[in-house]
Structure of Glycerol-3-phosphate dehydrogenase [NAD(+)]:
Amino acid sequence: MGGAEDGAHAAGGHASNGHANGAVEEKVDELRRVMGKADGDPLRIVGVGAGAWGSVFCALLQDAYGHLRDKVQLRIWRRPGRAVDRATAEHLFNVINAREDVLRRLIRRCAYLKYVEGRLGDRTLYADEILRDGFCLNMIDTPLCPLKVVTNLQEAVWDADIVINGLPSTETRVVFGEIGRYWKERVNAPVIISLTKGIEASLDPVPRIITPTQMISKATKVPLDNILYLGGPNIASEIYNKEYANARICGTDKWRKPLAKFLRQPHFIVWDNSDLITHEVMGGLKNVYAIGAGMVAALTNESATSKSVYFALCTSEMIYITHLLEEEPEKLAGPLLADTYVTLLKGRNAWYGHKLAKGELTLEMGDSIKGKGTIQVRHFDCCPNFQLLPQTSRHTKLC
């Protein structure tokens, strides 16, 4: 599927810089045409939320398109004021000094001294400050490219053409509710790509599931046709280190196909699909499965047999649920199933489940774990007439 095109991209990596840059600029120009951008008006792409995957996603775009400043502007928003503790500052200093390219970059930017002072405890570093230099607080061991960081949410999003939601599902509704107030006077709705995994349950007016794209649409009044979901087997640090990966962007034909082409890179293949709701729900449920996988691994001393039985039960349930969500669901294959598999293998939720089973963490400690970020889980209890918030013309009972 897409083999010839993938091969062309792979070959492009060995082509001359002129040829590669020409192909990159062509992709930008094509997306600009689709979005109706005039000459001299740059395409404004904004990341909202700077966790590991949100930061890496923006850094991938910065690496690919950041040199085309007249045509593309990239920035990322995160809340100000989050302090980097002394132990993390010391570790960050060691990471910097272990990478000659990073060390030289910081010296050239006259930024190295503040990391020396942070290590000594002579000054406090902040998460938004180090992100500007290419360091995500949730992923210290993987230096990124420098990013343009904005800490004022209104400044970040008010004129954005494309917004990337990298927030946890627990924060999506609140932050996009605020963004919605800034967009009241907008004539043209932006395009939103949600990376968020998680679902919520609501009992009013009937019991139903609410997905992040639906939260965003309700909060901002942006039509669901302009909101897409991107998910796949994506371990953020590995993708930024250019390990081969794929993902799937889901939504309407108008946006998903040009965006899939724009986001695709030689090591990051993006497929597209129209089945938004199934992929979003599965993206949330696989986080629940991952906690169980971590617990199974810990309690069975990493038994391959036990883990495979658990995986079989998870996939059976996924098949059942997809048939409830869609009359003719797509087969569970490619990035959707792989996303579940990689999260069970190495995701932070699997790590969390493993620690819970070993007694090294407790539920009372909460879901925000230092160095890991937020453990993204939403759960609901089965009840009669549990229905999905309608994405299509029909309601779907889940129980």
